[in-house]
Structure formats: structure tokens, C-alpha cells
Amino acid sequence: MTAKTTFGEWGRRTGHRAWRVGVVALFAGSLTVQAHASGEVPPDKVVITEDRQVVASLTGASGDAASGRGWFQDRKLGNCLACHQNDDLADQPFHGEVGPELNGVSDRYSEPELRAILVNSKKVFGDESIMPSFYRATNGARTAEAFQGKTILTAQQVEDVLAYLLTLKED
Predict the structure, then answer these.
(1) How many whole angstroms separate alpha carbon 159 and alpha carbon 147?
(2) Per the structure, how many domains does the chain have?
(3) Structural domain of residue 20, as residue ranges?
(4) What pLDDT, in 10s, does the model give residues 3-51?
(5) Segment 146-153 mean pLDDT
(6) CA-to-CA distance for 82 and 95, rounded, in angstroms?
(7) Are 22 and 74 found together in one domain?
(8) Which of 10, 45, 97, 134 suits 58 as a labelling partner, its CA being 20 to 30 A distant?
(9) Comparing C-alpha atoms, which of 79, 89, 104, 75 is closest to residue 165?
(10) What CA–CA distances, in Å, run from 43 to 103, 140, 144, 148, 157?
(11) What is the DSSP secondary structure assignment for residue 75, as one 8-state letter?
(12) What is the pTM of this model?
């Protein structure tokens, strides 16, 4: 192999492709280990029970309610206020009336039920629900192009929004 010959050229000329396959396998293996080490459940592995619950945290940890409040009101990401009334965020304009009022939502739903609603609202409320599924890669016809094939929220963001929703109690 000369100084100007690359490994790829050497592999093509000599038929040594095994080294490329090995490098790719090693790299992919390290990604798999990192994904599992983080404790995050991939969207396609989340289990919604028959009674419409996701029992365990998506990240293996609790969410942060203050961060969840931010994701909840973020007009470019969660955008929950576009459809839901929420008196805790009365200072924010343009609360929607399409979805149910979220005041006291944690008194109406358990933590596992709320997690299931955030993860895959279609499985909880039916395919005709206009609420997006925030932790599902396939969301249907009304999903913005930027989110096709991706989750709207990360697993941590779902847990953060959930933690915030759990603070919304009846007066």
C-alpha cells in the first residue's frame, strides 16, 4: 500500500472488505450500548397496557416539573396550550378549547395513564383523536413534515411534561 492509497482503495483492489464490516459493526455496537446504558426506552419498545397505561418511566428517572412547564407552553415543540386551557399559565395568550381543560388533570388521571396519553394518544383515545402522540415516530396525516419519522418530544421531555401535569391539582 503506497502513502497515497487509502484503506478504501486498498480494500477495493484487494477484496478486503471484512475490515470495513468490522469497523461498522464495532461502531454500531457502541451506539447500541450507549442507547441501552442511558436507560431510555426507544419509542417502538414502549408498552401501553390493556388498561391504557405506561407504568415505568421512559428514562428510568422522574421528570423535572419546571422544565415540563416550559415544554408544555413552548409553541414550537409541545404546544399544549394550542388545544388546552390551563389556569397555571394564565399569563400566556391563546389557550385552546379543542382539548379538555387541564386544570386538575392529575386528579382525573394517574401518572401511568398520563404517560400513556403523552406517549401515544391514538392508542388511548383512538385514531380519530387530533392530539398528537408525542413519543411515537409515526403520528399520521396531521404530523408536521419536520416531525415525520421522529418523535415530537424526547423521552426526557415526556417525563418532564408528565411531572408538570402531576402538579395540576383541583383547587
Answers:
(1) 19
(2) 2
(3) 7-37
(4) 443 434 434 444 443 333 333 333 333 233 333 336 799 999 999 999 9
(5) 81
(6) 6
(7) no
(8) 97
(9) 104
(10) 28, 15, 18, 14, 13
(11) T
(12) 0.74
